[in-house]
Amino acid sequence: MTHNHPRTTYSAVNFMHKLSLLSEQWRPKVIAEMNDYQFKIVKIEGDFLWHTHDETDETFIVLDGSLRIDFRDGEVYLNTGEMYVVPKGIEHKPYAECEVKLLLIEPRGVVNTGNEGGERTAMNDVWV
Q1: Which CATH class is domain 37-116?
Q2: What's the pTM value of the predicted model, to 2 decimals?
Q3: DSSP symbol at 51
Q4: Domain boundaries, the chain
Q5: How high is the pLDDT of residue 4?
Q6: For residue 122, what are the contacts with CB-CB under 8 A and spacing of at least 6?
Q7: What pLDDT, in 10s, does the model give residues 1-56?
Q8: Distance, CA of 17 to CA of 59 (rounded, Å)
Q9: Cα 16 to the chain's mean position, in Å?
Q10: Minimal CB count within 10 Å: which of 4, 51, 82, 86?
Q11: What stretches of the chain show up as alpha helix (H) in DSSP?
Q12: d(CA 114, CA 61)
């Protein structure tokens, strides 16, 4: 079976270049796919909402800045060059005092607000 993907090129994906194309926060954009997983970049600042992803783990990789991920019974702090995998079904809330640039890795179709929905929900499968 031939896989004709419109973004199949022999060139590197530069995180900072892709991030420079983002004009809004809290709106993840896809930069690559691997099997059923998407690599998404996003800029965030301030508080998000409590949510869970019942079907999948979610990986946060900090490309620039400092991120705190709150849990009901604790928190984890991530700085540039660090990552954390939030296990599926664990309620969490990202927070960034100043703008943070993130790489997210999650299966295609995962909604950024998990089971909560609402106005913070970003469209899926938007490429940059």
Answers
A1: mainly beta
A2: 0.90
A3: B
A4: 37-116
A5: 58
A6: 26, 27, 28, 111, 112, 113
A7: 455 566 667 999 999 999 999 999 999 999 999 999 999 999 999 999 999 999 99
A8: 21
A9: 15
A10: 4
A11: 15-20
A12: 18
